[in-house]
Request: fold
Amino acid sequence: MITKSFATSPILSAAARSVVLAAALCLPATAAADEFSGADTAFIMICAALVMLMTPAGLALFYGGLTQRKSVLNTVGMSYVAFCAAILAWMVIGYSIAFGGSENPLSGGLEHVMLASIGVDDLSGTIPTTIFVLFQGCFAAIAVAIVSGSIIERLRFSTWLLFVVLWVTLCYAPIAHWIWGGGLFDSHNELDFAGGTVVHISSGVSGLVLALLLGRRRVEPDKAYQPYSIKFTLLGSALLWFGWFGFNAGSALAADKIAANAMLVTAIAAAAGGLAWLFCDWVNSRQSHLFGAASGVVSGLVGITPAAGFVGADGALIIGVLSGLSGFFAVTWMKKKFGYDDALDAFGIHGAVGIVGSLLTGMLANPAISGEAGLFYGEPGRMVAQSLAVVTTVAYSAAMTAAIYFALKMVMGSGRISDDHESEGLDSIYHGEQEGPSARTND
Reply:
């Protein structure tokens, strides 16, 4: 009788349901291997949306604010259409090359071309393979969009579209297979949690190579390049920071403690990178440039990307500061020293900082986080794996980007725009659109 009264009491029943719900929330979100988890699936769906936001919104605004007014729409458009073309290339063949089952250490198989053999019931761990495909496709899209930052105001729009498709297929997808798809570096146990090597080193190096092949922009000696809107750049960096939580935390592929740690260290490294760059600006010029703060934040985000699942707050602080410093060094000293025209510093912020972040991951990986130890925690061999992956990715990205460029040049002619087009600006030439007359050249 007492038991029945307890069960039928509205107040006690509500309390009991609350206790059960609270207990359920305290349990790990991940289910057993290959068992569907609604919590993990919802989490990765949100993360995929956040990563999608990074390319046609965050990166587009970040780059668009830094270019000249006469080509700002073209610059934004290069990121926007890169997402469209890259997603389709990924669905058609890129995913299969990266994650198709294969014993080949260099490339996955072709059984998933056009996403064949992937049904709604198929799982990757505890989440549907369909959302895993989309999540990884957003990574491929932002990687190739980053490349555009090195070569804005110089490349034909049609050439860019074809380059995106070929680069995702022939450059990005194989590297993703090497590191994440059970390929070349799987047995070496190289640590790249969310794409420091796969995304940032490959794109940064490719951008630099493409910039060298296209040559410097031509500008009248008495004129300097004036950014269209620093406000756009700040807003773009904020959207990138926001999306990067999905970028890093989602790479855990589960709503678990590693994902939570990844979000924390992402915030720490970004903030540290922004302040480190700002400090360098102050020492160098006695001014606090907001462009520097935005660039430092992105540098901190790049640096923490490979380490997000392997370091704690202390490691994130170190990586953030060193990423901000190395980004500042690459953008201000290295570019001036060697004279290359990396227009929006894709190599300086992504390539150079990506290399630093990958190596720091090999040093600072803390076994208390996920069981993986770095150099400073008694695993010196880790640096061999990290260094080998960095060197191989740099060499392959450079060679494949050059090969794609020369192949397109043979088929389509020079991808370089004419001097007249560069002088007039690409917005009117390629898109027939321009910012209104009230737009200011330098905000």
User: Anything to note?
Assistant: The two ends are 76 Å apart (CA to CA). Residues 24 and 43 are 16 Å apart (CA to CA).
